[in-house]
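User: Sequence recovery, please. Input:
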């Protein structure tokens, strides 16, 4: 099995075990990146840092891991439990035409998406001196124009897919829950085709949750492990973990990341890869396996289940 870790590298901090994207919280990059590298290096794991252009100057030096591009377009104020913060990218806001304030790429016309992606990629290349090949869209939001623009600028790996999920800002509903990397179709980024870019989906648990470290307070670490077991027990060739860099400024999340990588690394034939090293696999057949989740039932998931029952009354 090939395992990738994609870190969405942004400003921010952790409040009540939730990521808050505050622009003044630069330690989410300066310290978060370094802490994640220290943990990953213990297990010879590789990390793809999907870097927002606005944070590039705060990125630690001498990090021997992959640099990708992460784009949050627009500029909007959000609020979480009384804390107000902005989503967007100062560098792109200054250097690109943006006819909207929307924080989702699929709202923008092709020409504006292309300019943001091209400008961001060129800036990261100038700062880091590397060819950027991987990409993550802010809020998981892409459309066919995004894929076209990524191909135009030479991006080879797109890592924004959250399989079989849909919201008002993204649509990946056509993908199966357990989805391996695939080349998309020109007419539909959710269908297999032969475009020269690989969609690299995030691994997904049952009940709609993706393998994002931020989900640990909700479902417990045991359910992230259960998802890995579900994939591994079927000899699936690929597993994708994601997280935001500010989580790695908190001892709680650092401990969970360490334990998750320790658990994964104990299995046979595990190969940690950068996102850009992933290739399309031979056709695989997967099934939903409930047992790992049943065995991983914990206090967090019971509370989450009870809350969902109350809210749905």
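Assistant: Recovered sequence (313 residues):
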């Amino acid at each position: 099995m090939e395992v990738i870790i994609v870190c969405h590298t942004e400003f921010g901090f952790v409040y009540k075990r939730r990521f808050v994207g505050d622009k003044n919280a630069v330690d989410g990059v300066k310290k978060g990146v370094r802490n994640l590298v220290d943990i990953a290096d213990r297990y010879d794991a590789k990390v793809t840092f999907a870097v927002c252009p606005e944070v590039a100057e705060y990125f630690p030096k001498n990090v021997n891991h992959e640099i990708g591009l992460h784009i949050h377009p627009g500029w909007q104020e959000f609020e979480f439990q009384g804390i107000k913060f902005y989503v967007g990218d100062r560098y792109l806001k200054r250097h690109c035409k943006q006819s909207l304030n929307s924080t989702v790429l699929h709202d923008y016309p092709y020409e504006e998406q292309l300019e943001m992606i091209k400008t961001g990629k060129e800036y990261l290349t100038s700062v880091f001196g590397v060819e950027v090949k991987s990409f993550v869209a802010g809020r998981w939001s892409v459309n066919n124009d995004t894929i076209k623009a990524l191909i135009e600028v030479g991006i080879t790996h797109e890592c924004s897919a959250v399989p079989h999920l849909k919201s008002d800002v993204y649509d990946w509903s056509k993908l199966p829950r357990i989805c391996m990397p695939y080349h998309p179709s020109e007419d539909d980024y959710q269908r297999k085709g032969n475009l020269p870019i690989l969609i690299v989906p995030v691994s997904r648990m049952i009940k709609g949750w993706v393998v994002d470290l931020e989900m640990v307070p909700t479902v417990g670490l045991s359910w992230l492990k259960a998802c890995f077991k579900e994939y591994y027990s079927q000899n699936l060739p690929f597993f994708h973990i994601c997280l935001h860099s500010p989580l790695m400024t908190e001892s709680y999340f650092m401990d969970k990341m360490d334990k998750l990588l320790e658990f994964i690394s104990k299995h046979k034939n595990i190969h940690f890869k950068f996102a850009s090293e992933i290739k399309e696999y031979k056709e695989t057949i997967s099934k939903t396996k409930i047992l790992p989740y049943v065995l991983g039932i914990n206090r967090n998931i019971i509370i989450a289940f009870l809350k969902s029952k109350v809210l749905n009354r």
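The domain at 2-311 is CATH 3.20.20.370 (TIM Barrel).
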